[in-house]
From TrEMBL:
<dbReference type="GO" id="GO:0005737">
    <property type="term" value="C:cytoplasm"/>
</dbReference>
<dbReference type="InterPro" id="IPR012340">
    <property type="entry name" value="NA-bd_OB-fold"/>
</dbReference>
<dbReference type="Pfam" id="PF01330">
    <property type="entry name" value="RuvA_N"/>
</dbReference>
<dbReference type="InterPro" id="IPR000085">
    <property type="entry name" value="RuvA"/>
</dbReference>
<keyword id="KW-0347">Helicase</keyword>
<dbReference type="Pfam" id="PF07499">
    <property type="entry name" value="RuvA_C"/>
</dbReference>
<keyword id="KW-0963">Cytoplasm</keyword>
<dbReference type="GO" id="GO:0009379">
    <property type="term" value="C:Holliday junction helicase complex"/>
</dbReference>
<dbReference type="InterPro" id="IPR013849">
    <property type="entry name" value="DNA_helicase_Holl-junc_RuvA_I"/>
</dbReference>
<keyword id="KW-0227">DNA damage</keyword>
<dbReference type="GO" id="GO:0006310">
    <property type="term" value="P:DNA recombination"/>
</dbReference>
<protein>
    <recommendedName>
        <fullName>Holliday junction branch migration complex subunit RuvA</fullName>
    </recommendedName>
</protein>
<dbReference type="GO" id="GO:0000400">
    <property type="term" value="F:four-way junction DNA binding"/>
</dbReference>
<keyword id="KW-0067">ATP-binding</keyword>
<comment type="similarity">
    <text>Belongs to the RuvA family.</text>
</comment>
<dbReference type="InterPro" id="IPR010994">
    <property type="entry name" value="RuvA_2-like"/>
</dbReference>
<dbReference type="InterPro" id="IPR003583">
    <property type="entry name" value="Hlx-hairpin-Hlx_DNA-bd_motif"/>
</dbReference>
Amino acid sequence: MIDFVRGPVVHLEADYVVLEVQGIGYRIYTPNPYAFAKSEAAVTIYTHHHVREDAILLFGFASRQEQKLFRRLIEVSGVGPKVALGILSAGKPDSVVAAIQQENYSFLTKLPGIGKKTAQRIVLDLKDKLDGMGWDTDPGSLFAEVQTIEDDREDGAWGEAREALKALGYKDVELDRVWNDLQHRVHADETVDSLMKKALQLLFTG
C-alpha cells in the first residue's frame, strides 16, 4: 500500500498530476490538480493505492482528512473512485461530512455525480461511521457552502462563463475543479470574459 508520495510536480492535467520520485513519474489522480502548482519544491500527496483487474491507480489528496473521507466514500455501493473524486472536488471534507451526518440531501445532490438515490445510500452507509475523526461539522459553515455551490453553478458571471466553456467542449468535472481553485481569487464584480480567461489559463496549465 502506497500511503503518500513526496516529490516535485512535473506535469499537470485536468484530473491528475505527475510527481517525480527518484527519476520515476507517478501519475496521481486528485480532486484539484491545480492545488499542486508546478514547482521544483517537493510536495507531499497522501495517496490511496487502488487495484482492480485492468488497472493499478493512485489517487492523491492534499490532506489526511481528504484521504480518509475518500476511503469512506468508496466503501459505499455505487460510489467509485471517480465519483468520490468529484465529491471532493466540489465540497470541503468537513462540509461533506456535515451534510452526511445531518442528512442534508440538498447539499449532497448538488455535488458532481450524486443523484438522490446515491445520496441516500451515502447517508445510510456512512452517517454513523464518521464520528471521532476530527471533522468540523458546524451547521452554519455547511449552510454557507450549500449556498456557494448553488450560486456558483446557477447564477452570476461564473454561471455564464461555465456554460460558454461547456459549449467549447469542457466537461463538468474539469470546470468544477477549475472553479474550486478559481473561486478564492476572483472579485465580486468579475466579468464573464475575465472569468473565462482565468479559467482557460488553468485549463491550459501543464
